[in-house]
Amino acid sequence: MEEKLVASVPTDVQVTVTASPNKGLEQTFELAERLIGHGYDVVPHLAARMISGKAELAEIVERLTGAGVTTVFVPGGDADPVGDYHDSVALLEDLAALGSPFRQVGIAGYPESHPAIADDVTIQAMWDKRRHATHVVSNLTFDPKAITDWLKRMRTRGITMPLLVGLPGPVDRAKLLGMATKIGVGDSTRFLTKHKGFMAWLAAPGGFTGVDVPGQVRACAPGALVEGLHLYTFNQVAETEQWRQEFLGRLRD
């Protein structure tokens, strides 16, 4: 993936590096460091359950800040806890105790139901994290109304952090449907099945952006504090960058 990214994505695009329970954080950090070497602004994931405690966190902070990392994304993570952190709140508190070393700290938000956490809990979690995070990155959704309703709940609750709306890039349809419930977009795929032409879309070759971008943007009313988009590539980096460039070209026309 590194080679494809360097070959297809300009260095003025901020890129994120996820944390896989199967591969471990070391691979996350090594890839982040190599991409920084190529000139990218890189956002590594600090998955809380994959970090043993404050001592390891301090070592990670020293390593990443030394490499030039200024932004991190802090999810709880899907792994079983390896130490003190059972959620991202505790890790965020320890980051603050270490002097808030990163200029930007992103946290996750779920416009649709998380596969393992109740909706009210995810909203409360954003409230609990608001003092230590700078912005929210939403999980992807294909239903603009889901974004609208979720934003209203957030803002009514007093969660005023800026939001990056998560959108899928071109993604293999079979992979998307297979992952939908696991990644928390089961409601979105049910939304898609109600729309005319879905079965033709499913059978057709090629990728799918999966979302009505203008509809998503219109769903975010003035004052909603939406400051940008976050594209999920599903490792289809070159295809996503091509789609991004084409979409920006249409906006300029």
Describe the structure.
The chain is of the alpha/beta class. Helix content is 46%, strand content 13%. It is built from eleven helices and seven strands. The chain has a five-stranded parallel β-sheet with strand order 3-4-5-6-7, with helices on one face. α1 runs parallel beside α11. The chain is globular, with a radius of gyration of 18 Å. The two termini are 32 Å apart. The relative contact order is 0.12. About 4% of the residues have low confidence.
Tell me the strand percentage band.
5-15%
Strand order of the largest sheet: 3-4-5-6-7
Mean pLDDT: 83
Q: What pattern of helices and strands is seen along the backbone?
A: HEHEHEHEHEHEHHHHEH
What sort of overall outline do the alpha carbons produce when their principal axes are compared? globular
Number of helices: 11
**Spans where pLDDT lies below 50 across 5 or more residues:** 198-206
Main sheet properties: 5 strands, parallel
SSE class? alpha/beta
Helical amount among residues, as a percent range?
A: 40-55%
Taking the alpha carbons of the first and last residues, their distance comes to 32 Å
Gyration radius from CA atoms, angstroms: 18 Å
Number of strands: 7
Task: Write a short abstract of this structure.
By secondary structure, this protein is an alpha/beta fold. It is built from eleven helices and seven strands. The protein has helices at residues 2-8, 25-37, 54-67, 88-97, 119-129, 144-157, 173-183, 186-193, 198-203, 213-219, 237-252, and strands at 15-17, 42-44, 71-73, 104-109, 135-138, 163-168, 226-232.
